[in-house]
UniProtKB/TrEMBL annotation:
<keyword id="KW-0472">Membrane</keyword>
<feature type="transmembrane region" description="Helical">
    <location>
        <begin position="267"/>
        <end position="288"/>
    </location>
</feature>
<feature type="transmembrane region" description="Helical">
    <location>
        <begin position="226"/>
        <end position="246"/>
    </location>
</feature>
<feature type="transmembrane region" description="Helical">
    <location>
        <begin position="294"/>
        <end position="317"/>
    </location>
</feature>
<feature type="transmembrane region" description="Helical">
    <location>
        <begin position="105"/>
        <end position="126"/>
    </location>
</feature>
<feature type="transmembrane region" description="Helical">
    <location>
        <begin position="329"/>
        <end position="347"/>
    </location>
</feature>
<feature type="transmembrane region" description="Helical">
    <location>
        <begin position="399"/>
        <end position="416"/>
    </location>
</feature>
<dbReference type="InterPro" id="IPR036259">
    <property type="entry name" value="MFS_trans_sf"/>
</dbReference>
<dbReference type="InterPro" id="IPR011701">
    <property type="entry name" value="MFS"/>
</dbReference>
<dbReference type="InterPro" id="IPR004638">
    <property type="entry name" value="EmrB-like"/>
</dbReference>
<dbReference type="InterPro" id="IPR020846">
    <property type="entry name" value="MFS_dom"/>
</dbReference>
<feature type="transmembrane region" description="Helical">
    <location>
        <begin position="80"/>
        <end position="99"/>
    </location>
</feature>
<feature type="transmembrane region" description="Helical">
    <location>
        <begin position="359"/>
        <end position="387"/>
    </location>
</feature>
<keyword id="KW-0813">Transport</keyword>
<feature type="transmembrane region" description="Helical">
    <location>
        <begin position="12"/>
        <end position="36"/>
    </location>
</feature>
<keyword id="KW-1003">Cell membrane</keyword>
<keyword id="KW-1133">Transmembrane helix</keyword>
Length: 488
């Protein structure tokens, strides 16, 4: 049984290294959007290249995050976490010195691999190291500090972009890793899961990542048409079908398909797809809208988006307590509808928009919607399966959220009619942004309808989340016990 106490020096070191590790991945997911206009100008990149700058990271992260948790269980969580931190730092260095968009995109894909190794490992180390009496508080502090990092990230990112330059958004990860890795090796005890056996489901991981990559490519390049796009779309769908077939046939798969026999679990993941597709698309395009159309600097745009994160950090715990009392159905119905209203209010944000009269009200309504739904969504995911599979359920839900975000970033410019040079033309981008917000609002309404029709209160005594605060905006937190998967 783990016996490290939170008040001990070792406990504080463990908390520090896990917060640093998770913050590296979290900051990159929130800050890069702010830097996109400057990246595009400096590297002479079109809109498709900016989409890939975001999505190359998300493809490998979403496709490999379940495998990353399994590697930690098998080979040691500290070891895999440190490898992930170092990998992420090296990839960040490559991003920071990238001479062109192609190298930057490739380095971002490598970053996603590092993120898939360290993201599940940060929480798993806390779960495996701390005494049970201290674990809940340790997870709460980890989540709270992560939320503070998410709130500070866009401000720091904007300052870096306007000051030293966008490359420092990536280079900042190197000193963080130089601090995090040695602390982990010196102070964090090694842990693993002796129950894992067999071979890893590498085929399943490859097929999942390949399906995401091919579908994303087809959506981003669809505006140009051609045989390559059509072949990519068909191949992506075929890879997705093959992934499902492989996971159904393997005795111990990466993603056991029988977990979807729970109607509640399936419904909540459908809600997740709708919600995080809309949120991923919104935060990608809103950062561009504020800079390209409204005329904000990178620092002003990053600061402008802070209310959503601050509201989540301050109020998400109370939202979770309310959902415990009234059940998840109402929050998961009302939350997406509030988010949809916030995105429709963003239609007021155009040339000459006032922050107080136009931008802030939209972000406040959006933030309240996110507060209402995020904690109940995580709790319902955990409560819809057996306690022994809570970690697996959380990992699947987290991967689904990230996959939804990357598909939205790929698809929304196509659906909204954005051309390759749209972000250089304020008038054209403003029109397309309005169409994109309508699409996002529609996805959220669909999510609300699914929640109202299917989601019900979990049974008494179900697994509850230990993260009561949440400041992230692009994916729900990983929750529950470390993801124990017996991958064949």
């Amino acid at each position: 049984m783990p016996d490290v106490r939170l008040a001990s020096p070792q406990g504080r070191w463990i908390l520090l290294t896990t917060v640093l590790g998770s913050s590296m991945a979290l900051l990159d997911s929130t800050v890069v959007n702010i830097a996109l206009p400057r990246i595009g100008r400096d590297l002479d990149a079109d809109l498709a290249a900016l989409q890939w700058t975001v999505n190359a990271y998300m493809v490998t992260l979403a496709g490999l995050i379940l495998l990353g948790g399994a590697l930690g269980d098998r080979f040691g969580r500290r070891k895999v976490f440190v490898v992930g931190v170092v990998w992420f730092a090296v990839a960040s260095l490559l991003c920071g010195i990238a001479p062109n968009a192609g190298v930057l995109i490739a380095a971002r894909a490598l970053q996603g691999v590092g993120g898939a190794l360290l993201t599940p490992g940060s929480l798993a180390l806390i779960q495996a190291s701390f005494h049970p009496d201290d674990r809940g508080r340790a997870v709460g502090l980890w989540s709270g500090f992560g939320g503070i990092g998410a709130a500070v990230g866009p401000f720091v990112g904007g300052w870096l972009v306007d000051g030293p330059g966008w490359r420092w958004v990536f280079l900042l990860n190197v000193p963080l890793a130089l601090l995090c890795a040695p602390v982990a090796l010196r102070h964090v005890p090694e842990s693993g899961d002796q129950r894992v056996h067999g071979r890893f489901d590498v085929l399943g991981a490859v097929l999942g990542a390949l399906a995401l990559a091919l579908v994303t490519y087809a959506l981003i390049e669809a505006g140009g048409g051609g045989a390559v796009v059509a072949v990519s779309a068909v191949a992506g769908l075929a890879a997705a079908v093959a992934f499902v077939v492989v996971e159904r046939r393997r005795p111990d798969p990466m993603m056991p398909t029988d977990i979807f026999a729970s109607r509640q679990f399936t419904a909540v993941n459908l809600v997740t797809l709708c919600v995080y597709a809309a949120l991923g698309g919104f935060f990608f395009l809103a950062a561009l809208q504020l800079q390209v159309v409204v005329g904000y600097s990178a620092l002003a745009a990053g600061t402008a988006l802070l209310p959503t994160t601050v509201l989540m950090l301050l109020l998400s715990a109370r939202s979770g307590e309310l959902a415990d009392r009234i059940g998840p159905r109402i929050p998961l119905t009302v939350g997406p509808l509030l988010c949809a209203a916030g995105m429709l209010l963003m239609l007021r944000v155009g040339p000459g928009a006032s922050y107080v009269a136009d931008v802030l009200p939209a972000l406040m309504v959006l933030g309240l919607g996110m507060v209402t739904l995020v904690a109940p969504l995580t709790a319902t995911v955990l409560g819809s399966v057996d306690v022994a599979r809570a970690g697996l359920a959380s990992g699947i839900n987290n991967a689904a959220a990230r996959a939804a975000g990357l598909v939205a970033v790929a698809a929304l410019p196509l659906l909204a009619g954005m051309g390759e040079e749209a972000y250089r033309e304020p008038g054209a981008f403003d029109v397309a942004f309005g169409k994109a917000m309508a699409w996002c609002a529609g996805a959220l309404v669909v999510g609300a309808v699914i929640a109202a029709a299917v989601v019900r209160r979990p049974p008494p005594g179900c697994k509850r989340p230990e993260c009561l605060r949440h400041g992230g905006v692009t994916a729900p937190p990983l929750e529950g016990e470390p993801v124990r998967k017996r991958l064949s």
